[in-house]
């Protein structure tokens, strides 16, 4: 669990105590512009921003943009959005990645795979473990499963399976971007022959 790496002193240094009025105003503008929300919906997002900002050491600009990005791509709100934003920022910080960029990449992956709210944190935890096991970046892995995962998704693979497959390839020096065009052609051929693409790929790997 990636949360075990977050120490209590670090969590206690939430940015709210250090934010100026100008920084807060800019953060609210980021949320409004980034999401297009108005009225009660905007007020709810502002409340969610405050909840996240109190619990992470990231600055107001990063938190507001990460939250707005994840809301835009997923439509998640409330506690689900808050927890996902916190954990994405935490993971990015531990991996020394830009939290907003990672939020963009992960948000796109969730949207591409139509991941429901209740499963989103589990997918983030899984991707984080893969970054540790295979030395790939969170943003990099999220981007790969979005850009190149459609072929495998159509062949019946789940997002977790595709993420593991791509992380292991990259870790072993096999560029996903170079492999997927050939795999795309192969899955089409298997489909034309009435074969199960998932089983055929397993045979190829074996």
Blueprint (SSEs and pairs):
Elements: H1 8-12, H2 21-35, H3 39-53, H4 60-74, H5 78-94, H6 99-112, H7 117-134, H8 138-147, H9 150-154, H10 159-171, H11 176-192, H12 197-205
Helix pairs in contact: 2-4, 3-4, 3-5, 4-5, 4-6, 5-6, 5-7, 6-8, 7-10, 8-10
Can you tell me about this structure?
- The protein has 206 residues and is mostly helical.
- It is built from twelve helices and no strands.
- It has helices spanning 8-12, 21-35, 39-53, 60-74, 78-94, 99-112, 117-134, 138-147, 150-154, 159-171, 176-192, 197-205.
- Mean pLDDT is 90; it is low at 4-13.
Features:
mainly alpha
Could you write a compact summary of the structure shown?
This protein is mainly alpha-helical. The protein has 12 helices and no strands. The protein starts with 7 loop residues before the first helix and ends with a helix.
């Amino acid at each position: 669990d990636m949360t075990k790496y977050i120490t209590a002193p670090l969590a206690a240094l939430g940015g709210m105590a250090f934010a100026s009025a100008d920084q807060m105003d800019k953060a609210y503008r980021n949320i409004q512009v980034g999401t297009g929300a108005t009225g009660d919906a905007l007020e709810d997002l502002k409340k969610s921003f405050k909840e996240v900002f109190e619990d992470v050491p990231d600055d107001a600009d990063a938190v507001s943009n990460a939250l707005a990005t994840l809301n835009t791509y997923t439509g998640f709100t409330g506690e689900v959005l808050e927890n996902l934003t916190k954990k994405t920022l935490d993971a990015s910080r531990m991996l020394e990645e830009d939290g907003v960029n990672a939020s963009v990449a992960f948000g796109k992956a969730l949207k591409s795979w139509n991941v429901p709210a209740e499963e989103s944190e589990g997918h983030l935890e899984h991707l984080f473990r893969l970054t540790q096991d295979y030395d790939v970046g969170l943003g990099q892995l999220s981007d790969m499963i979005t850009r190149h995962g459609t072929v495998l998704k159509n062949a019946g693979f789940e997002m977790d399976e595709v993420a593991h497959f791509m992380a292991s390839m990259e870790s072993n020096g096999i560029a996903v971007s170079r492999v997927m065009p050939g795999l795309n052609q192969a899955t089409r051929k298997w489909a034309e022959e009435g074969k199960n693409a998932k089983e055929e790929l397993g045979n190829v790997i074996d």
